[in-house]
């Protein structure tokens, strides 16, 4: 059982995330905290395996949580949750010792996968590359809007266009192969294509 503590001042988001995580038999949410101080005050009595922390919180923000935990409980893994796919924020989190960085609009299974990876101490891909790919996707905006594509689906389309296979895409985006296969089915449905060749041709026809 992986014990998790979550610090986020957006109560609806926190409760929704708690419900999502508790659908998994091996994940236990020990507590929800509306700021970093509430969380760290509890660490002396019951230590989690993984902390999920927002960055923007009152009293003590996510950077403060990260600094305190890594100095006092270095064995505890810290996953930063952020609304901002900003390179400077990412670099600061990694410099301060974050074990992973996950965008708040990521797929739920991406977060669950990340929790398992950091808990097991396995190496995660370079999240900087994922963020840079997201930032470079602005020229896909019209395409994304027209076909109601998610940010993740756009990233996968770009990687498919580069000729990468499901396993390579999964490794690059820190997702399971099964998740990539599901995304590809959804992409094919939205774009009304039935194969990789049709998908690439459609993207190229739109000069993307």
Describe the structure.
With 208 residues, the chain is of the alpha/beta class. 53% of the residues lie in helices and 13% in strands. It has helices spanning 11-21, 36-42, 62-72, 87-95, 108-120, 127-135, 141-147, 151-161, 166-173, 177-191, 196-205; strands spanning 2-7, 27-33, 50-54, 77-82, 100-103. It has a five-stranded parallel sheet, sandwiched between helices. The termini are far apart.
Helix content: 40-55%
The CATH homologous superfamily of the largest domain: Response regulator
CATH hierarchy: architecture of the largest domain: 3-Layer(aba) Sandwich
Coarse shape = elongated
> What's the total count of β strands?
5
Domains, number: 2
Mean pLDDT equals 86
Order of helices and strands: EHEHEHEHEHHHHHHH
The CATH topology of the largest domain: Rossmann fold
What fraction strand?
Answer: 5-15%
Q: Strand count, sense and closure of the main sheet?
A: 5 strands, parallel
Q: Largest sheet, order of strands side by side?
A: 2-1-3-4-5
What is the CATH first-level class name of the largest domain? Alpha Beta
The span between the termini is 45 Å
Low-confidence stretches: none
Question: Radius of gyration, rounded?
Answer: 18 Å
> How many helices?
11
């Amino acid at each position: 059982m992986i014990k998790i503590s979550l610090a986020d001042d957006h109560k609806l988001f926190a409760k929704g995330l708690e419900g999502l995580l508790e659908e998994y038999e091996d994940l236990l949410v020990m507590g929800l905290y509306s700021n970093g101080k509430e969380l760290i005050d509890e660490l002396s009595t019951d230590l989690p395996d993984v902390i999920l922390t927002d960055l923007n919180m009152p009293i003590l923000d996510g950077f403060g949580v990260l600094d305190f935990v890594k100095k006092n409980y270095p064995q505890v893994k810290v996953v930063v949750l952020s609304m901002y796919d900003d390179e400077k924020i990412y670099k600061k989190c990694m410099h301060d010792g974050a074990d992973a960085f996950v965008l708040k609009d990521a797929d739920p299974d991406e977060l669950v996968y990340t929790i398992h990876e950091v808990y097991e101490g396995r190496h995660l891909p370079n999240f900087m590359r994922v963020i840079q790919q997201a930032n470079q996707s602005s020229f896909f905006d019209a395409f994304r809007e027209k076909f109601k594509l998610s940010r993740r689906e756009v990233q996968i389309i770009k990687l498919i266009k580069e000729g990468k296979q499901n396993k390579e895409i999964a490794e690059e985006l820190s997702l399971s192969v099964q998740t990539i296969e599901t995304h590809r089915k959804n992409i094919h449905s939205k774009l009304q294509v039935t194969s990789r060749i049709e998908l690439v041709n459609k993207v190229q026809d739109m000069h993307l």
